[in-house]
Amino acid sequence: MKKKVLSALLCVSMAATMLVGCGGKTDDAAADAPAAEDTTDAAADTEEPAAEDTTDAADDSAAATDADLTTDKTFCLIVKSAGNPYNQKEADGFKEAIEAQGGTFVLQEPAAADAESQITCINNAISQGVDAIAIAANDADALQPALTEAKNAGIHVLALDSATNAASREVFCNQAGITQVGETLMEAVKDISGGEGKWAILSAASTATNQNAWIDSMKSVMEDSAYSGLELVGVYYGDDEYQKSVDQTDAILSENPDVKVICAPTTVGIMAAAKVVEDKGLAGQVKVTGLGLPSEMADYIGADDSHSCPYMFLWNPIDLGKLAGYTSIALVNGVITGAEGDSFTAPDGTAYEVTAASDGGTEIILGPPYGFNPDNIEEWKSVY
Fold this sequence. Notes:
The protein has 384 residues and is α/β, with parallel strands linked by helices. It has helices at 3-7, 57-68, 85-100, 115-128, 144-152, 178-193, 209-222, 242-255, 267-279, 294-297, 317-332, 377-380; strands at residues 24-27, 74-78, 104-108, 132-135, 156-160, 172-174, 197-203, 230-237, 259-264, 287-290, 312-314, 343-345, 351-353, 355-356, 362-365, 370-372.
């Protein structure tokens, strides 16, 4: 995530109304998005231009890109569950991207973070006749029959944040490369622990594809001799529910009284773990790191023994939602098909390329994880 991109988010509207229980919302209001700076480079022209031609090639390219992503179609976002602040930020970004280009935004929120609830949302979207579905999958495989039905109905399907299996989607909008996340989190655990001792993982649902991929990557990184002094005592699952994540943190601490680090690659989990550790007065003994929202974690980040989280990481979920929105339009308009090597340029001038994913499908990667620490958390907590 690049700071220059995130800084622009200070202007992003956070007014997306969220509905509970898989209720659908259609929003026809156009977003008031600021004009994007034209940064498109002009392609070299191998033919000599006519003398009277003074057209700026970069301006022409930008105009063509904007036209490619202009739409009057309907786009549905299905998040993991209702009431999750991270999901709300994704929806804000998706909504802004769709409405700024003239499209209609529909939100479906599952009542629970499971496949069954998302299948209900998929069926609702099919019955509404939307043109594209973007989904953050709670289960990689269980959604395939419903998503296949959507594709058979002529609906474009893509995943964001947490991937469906490759057969269920045209492309996956990935917040960061799996290896990048695994390496980043393991280096944090090693640094915070001093390179030795017990540590635990507090995850979301046991079926969450992104969580499992990151955890597998972390375990692979641990095979390096540099991490030989670390002992992973277990993976605990809070299902992205705050109270269950609190209970699982209590379990980690009671079952492993000498644990040194809890790593939570989930925004709900890291906040729950950080609060439990501080409430128990253990911040001098146990530290928390992982993936968290700056606005939720600002009070827990600090370099002293009264704060439970020395530093953490994330990407911008608003940017991820925007990427999924632009990708949805590009699929519907035929700008891309989701095949490896496809590319498009977003209205803000950012170029994205479709690359091969580790599961045999394809993906578009937003960027590397970004670190939040005591020096910058005050700046970012007001952004998202």
